[in-house]
Amino acid sequence: MKGKPLSAPAPVLKMLRLAVCAVLAGAALMTTAGAAPQAKSHCLSECKPRIGIVSAFGAEADILLEQTQKKREWKINGNRFTTGELRGNQVVIVLSGVSVVNATMVTQLMMDHFRVERLLMSGIAGGVDPASHVGDVTVPESWAMPMEVYWNGDGSLPAPCGAAGDVSCLGVKLAADNGKPRPDFKFDTPNGPVSSGLFMRDNFVMNETNAPQGEFRFEFQADPEMLALARTLKPALAKCGPKNPSLCVSVQPELRVGGRGVSGSAFLANPGYRAYLFDNLQAQVVDMETAAFAQVAYANRVPFIAFRSLSDLAGGNDFKDVGAFFGSGLAETNEASVTLAFLEAWSRRNRR
Fold this sequence. Notes:
This protein is an alpha/beta fold. The chain folds into 2 domains: 40-144 and 217-351, Nucleoside phosphorylase domain (Rossmann fold, 3-Layer(aba) Sandwich); 149-201, no CATH class. The protein has helices spanning 10-41, 58-67, 100-113, 224-230, 271-281, 290-299, 322-328, 330-351, and strands at residues 46-55, 69-76, 79-86, 89-95, 114-127, 137-139, 142-144, 149-151, 176-177, 180-181, 186-189, 192-195, 198-200, 203-205, 215-217, 219-221, 255-257, 260-263, 283-287, 304-313. Strands 1, 2, 3, 4, 5, 6, 7, 16, 17, 18, 19 and 20 form a 12-stranded mixed β-sheet that branches. Strands 8-13 form a two-stranded antiparallel sheet. Helix 5 links the parallel strand 18 and strand 19 (283-287). InterPro entries: Nucleoside_phosphorylase_d (IPR000845), Nucleoside_phosphorylase_sf (IPR035994). This is Menaquinone via futalosine step 2. Keywords: Glycosidase, Hydrolase, Signal. Its EC number is 3.2.2.9. One of its GO terms (molecular function) is adenosylhomocysteine nucleosidase activity.
């Protein structure tokens, strides 16, 4: 004979329900109380206010790390973050590795795990402006990613959404100058220029101020306050690097603040494209990390600045002193000198 499930009397069931609710409410209260400090501080590993410093090459970061005091290392997803004090500032330093993807990933990782109130990129790059020289240190006012492109079949303006230049139905936007799409890159041939169909695009970016619709931006502005301080610096830049003092540049390196920097996923070894960047964007310098780093800074609403020392003229051998970089370590030495001078001046400014 099949039995029926036993049921408890109504009063007992009511008491059980009240007990369960009380337990769940208590658990929820404990969870909320435990999570509140982390949610408020927005830092997963350490919540001390710091300047975040990102470098792509080991040689760039090593000079800064040697000068850092009271160091502590943190291993996060295989990346080594070093906290400490550098020229009077509380800092966290990380080596990102080369490429826009690495720079993006590691910079956001830093933002998530530490309380970064300002960001600084320090490293070497290729020159775009032919008036620049090996060993110069550039501090651009803005950074763009012109290799984010719409690749059309020819040099005509793409028109997939109707009007020429309208690509909005695809969720993208062409980069414009004074309301007109920027021209595509053209290859030089014996028969004249040939269109590549590569048209620059704006980047889509979203943060708390523009969500949920987000916005399209071609470039990201460095912090005006930090740029103003950089313009006051008078660093002693070397003509000969420490690795081989017999290799020296013929022109005294200078600190250049202003203009536009550009980044891309390609290692630029094309003088024609370098000329295109200079002619159309007046770009001063090109690398593979800073514009991505700048977009992360913008998305997190954190002020940033970037110092880049020139190793060569990107995509060409027309810097006659290019061997001085590769043989002597001149570029990273000058870049570190400017970075350290800036940090010292920033510390003095804050103490006042």
